[in-house]
Amino acid sequence: MQYDVTVIGSGPGGYIAAIRCAQLGMKTAIIEKYPALGGTCLNVGCIPSKALLDSSEYYHKATTEFETHGIKGGKFTMDLAQMVKRKQSVVDQTTGGISYLMKKNKIDVHTGVGSLHDKNTIVVRSAEGERVTLTSKYIIIATGSKPASLPFIKLDKKRVITSTEALEITKLPKHIIIMGGGVIGLELGSVFARLGTKITVVELMDNIIPTMDSTLGKELQKVLKKLGFEFLLGHKVTEVKSSPRQVKVTAEDKSGALKSLKGDYCLVSIGRKPYTEGLGLENVGISTDDVGRISVDEHLKTSVDNIYAIGDVIKGAMLAHKAEEEGVLVAEQLAGQKPHINYLLIPGVVYTWPEVASVGHTEEALKEAKIPYKKGAFPFKASARARASMDIDGLVKVLAHEQTDEILGVHIIGPRAADIIGEAVVAMEYRASAEDISRMSHAHPTFSEALKEACLDATGGRALNI
């Protein structure tokens, strides 16, 4: 079987790359080792976690806010098994949609593990042991990532689990210990905390979501504490032991003092690592770094001139939308076009409630680079729309260049922050100033008015509603 382009991996980066290649007239194939397309994001990541986050938030609002709204329906009960069932239906619909898109765009799907035999040949081995050989002018590696762990931790997937197993829990735990205060752990912790589970987060750093602007981490920690989270910051996990009914975690603080925790589960959420094992990279002379990432140039080309790599297997943020942009970039380059990605302007989001979203430089990065800046902020408690929906936690923070007023970073924690950040991305792609946004009409009442107000605050403290 001969192709112009063969994509290994069908996650957001892979399937988008395949679609764009097909749109541009290339005969395209995609290889996926699992029966369902969509990769981690659609099957055991972004999509199922958001489904559970929504279900748990509805329950939380029903039990804590409905009476204030004048809705009195008696005692609400929670059915976690039904939430998981609904989650799976969302996943099935979404992955089924990818299968439809493959057929629509005449992309051949090969199910099995793809391994490079040489620079133009891929051997696909199915679970049943069948072998299919493909030849391809170009190859795109988009195999994604898997949960990371530590050598002393045994992931038994029963009591010591990753995000994959957490998405399948159908009986509400009393206590979950989360190892890591990053995006994945906090999102899944939110799901269970809203339903009544005690959550303890053990984080090595002194703040949660440490890669984002520190203001966001501080504000999110306040919100999650109100939800019942307990935080052990500046603590290093030294031991994890499991038994059939519980797990015991030992953590050490900076002074060397030990703290012992017992829970139903330990969710290991310390990041993800590239999934590059079994690809046969050694057969074509492609090497990986100490964490398994493939090195690429500015065109996302590997050391082999016809093989590209995108998404979680290369450097950069492990985000579905980053992988998608890279998939499009490679496809359009192969067609002779000249696409471009500004990596600084790929937004990051935490889907807790309130949501957290960020794009551009953090305040810490501007200080370190000695870039002169000014900032403006606006709290959602001053937003009429936020008060109407009882979503008054959080703020918008805008960082702009001190001399030029160009927006350098926007950091939001608040209702619908994941959607509001899109306006900031557009503005920054066109190198808008804080004054530009402050002079644009925003519908009233909306959550996005908070961004305008923060920009007004950044341009001489001119916010109108604080």
Write up what this structure looks like.
This protein has three domains: 2-147 and 273-341, 3-Layer(bba) Sandwich (FAD/NAD(P)-binding domain); 160-270, FAD/NAD(P)-binding domain, CATH 3.50.50; 345-458, Enolase-like, domain 1 (2-Layer Sandwich), CATH 3.30.390. The longest helix is centred in the first third of the chain and has 25 residues, at 80-104. Strand 10 (198-203), helix 7 (214-226) and strand 11 form a beta-alpha-beta unit. The protein is α/β, with parallel strands linked by helices and 466 residues long. The protein is built from 13 helices and 22 strands. Strands 1, 2, 3, 4, 5, 6 and 17 form a seven-stranded mixed β-sheet that branches. It has a five-stranded parallel β-sheet with strand order 8-15-9-10-11. A five-stranded antiparallel β-sheet has the order 18-19-22-21-20, sandwiched between helices. Helix content is 31%, strand content 26%. The chain has helices at residues 12-23, 39-44, 46-64, 80-104, 163-166, 183-195, 214-226, 320-334, 363-368, 384-388, 417-429, 434-438, 449-458, and strands spanning 2-8, 28-32, 108-111, 113-118, 121-125, 131-141, 145-147, 160-161, 175-179, 198-203, 229-233, 236-242, 247-252, 258-263, 265-268, 272-274, 307-309, 348-350, 355-360, 373-379, 395-401, 407-414. Helix 1 (12-23) packs parallel to helix 8, helix 3 runs antiparallel to helix 4 (80-104) and helix 3 (46-64) packs parallel to helix 6 (183-195).
